[in-house]
Amino acid sequence: MKFNLKYFLLTILIFLAEILIATTFKNVVFLRSYFGDVLVVILIYTFILSFFKLQKTKLIFWIFIFACLIEFLQYLHFVELLGLEKNQLAITVLGNSFSWIDILCYGVGCIIVYILEVKEN
Question: Long-range contacts made by residues 33-40, C-beta under 8 angstroms, separation at least 24?
Fold first, then answer.
């Protein structure tokens, strides 16, 4: 475990962007529906690297798998199975509807991270 200030600050910035997308720009379809999903995998990546020094390519791969797992759980109505269908935070974090486009957005986010973090170095 090793704290990395650069990734921590990036995490905070991306998290604030996600909050703005979810609240202020919730009526801007592109931001809410697509860009937020691209950013969320980048947010997870920077958060993990804020505290752990890990092999970046493997981390990107596992974040994509995790994002896909959450998306497939949405297909199974996971929030309802947990009894959290009235909990807005749970719905926002876990989602409530499956979409192949979301998986594509997660892939785009992972590719962006790969290009910026792995390919350039």
Answer: 33/101, 34/101, 34/105, 35/105, 37/102, 37/105, 37/106, 37/109, 38/105, 38/106, 38/108, 38/109, 38/112, 39/14, 39/109, 40/67, 40/106, 40/109
